[in-house]
Amino acid sequence: MTNIVCFSQHLTVYKCWSELSAALARQQVDYALLPNTKDIWMRDFMPVQCTPDHFVAYRYEPDYLRGQSQYITNWKHVIAPSRLPHVNSELILDGGNVIMCGNKVILTEKVFLENPSLLPMQLISRLDKAFQTETVIIPWDRLEPYGHADGMVRYIGNGKVLITNYYDFDKGLRKKLLDAFQPHFEVVELHYDTPRPHKWNWAYINYLLTDGKLFLPRLNVPEDEQACAQIGSALGVPREHIELVDITGVLRNGGGLNCISWNVSLYDSIL
After folding, report:
1. Which of 129, 133, 215, 234 is in Cβ range 3.0-4.6 Å of 208 for a Cys bridge?
2. Could you tell me if 152 and 144 are in contact, meaning their C-beta atoms sit under 8 angstroms apart?
3. Cα 149 from Cα 89, distance rounded (Å)
């Protein structure tokens, strides 16, 4: 449902930018490079869009950047607040831990640790009010130190979520996730049929989807086409509108395509 995708200007110095920008051009996707960011992780600090005229801002003060303020971007220096219809939740959040799902929003339980001054039910009430949704809390995958949900699950519409291939490597966490989702969503699972799983195949779930075009990391392994087939089918995106992009430098730093992008639906220009 989004029609433009924004990246940090810092991304242009990465080797992947020429390939990614060419893929965006091939798919005729509008994009913008935004100034005044401290790093490339746009998803984490930019406000979350709930509807075309409702964004949620928050305090971006992650524990993994404690004492490293040189990497903490103030979104108000990126886009003038007056140009973005938003509410200030005053909660400590990461955008990578917020998965909008229509009338629900998914976050991992790390959000409780980030807001210790609030009791769990107080925090959930604040989240419900800010996002104007029902909050669904899922377990934190402790192999992912940032506590983000966007490396675990994505919403694919019609009350369905897509989860990464926990079936292949962590059946215990898979069961906990299925239990958490069962009252709220129908679950579709990824599974890669390969004798030697690639260490970065987690990154497929961290895809970029905008304007009906799907962008996935290219690892040059059998999982590439399996991911294209499975995720493309789940999202209803035909193969000709799926691009595989080498983002090795981004993956080495622990993020994927969703992490470096901020895709929004604009009824008017805010840029």
Report:
1. 215
2. yes
3. 19
pLDDT digits (tens, 9 = 90+) for 106-139: 999 999 999 999 999 999 999 999 999 999 999 9
Enter the pTM of the model: 0.96
SS3 16: helix
- Taking the C-alpha atoms of residue 83 and residue 81, their distance in angstroms, rounded to an integer, is 5
- Return the SS3 of 163: strand
CATH architecture of 4-264: 5-stranded Propeller (3.75)
List, as own/partner pairs, every contact residues 125-129 make where C-beta atoms lie below 8 angstroms and the sequence separation is at least 24, other chains included: 126/89, 126/91, 127/89, 127/91
Task: Map residue 257 onto helix, strand or coil.
Answer: coil
CB contact set of 268 (below 8 Å; sequence gap of 6+): none
Tokens representing residue 71 in the block: 């990497």
**Ranges of each domain in the chain:** 4-264
* Residue 206 · residue 231 · CB < 8 Å: no
Q: What pLDDT shows up at residue 268?
A: 63
The Cα 176–Cα 180 span in angstroms is 6
Alpha carbon of 118 to those of 8, 88, 124, 127: distances in Å? 33, 17, 9, 11
pLDDT in tens, 56-108: 999 999 999 999 999 999 999 999 998 899 999 999 999 999 999 999 999 99
- The amino acid present at 160, given as its one-letter code, is K
The H or E element containing residue 248 is helix 248-252
The one-letter amino acid at 236: G
Average pLDDT in the chain: 96
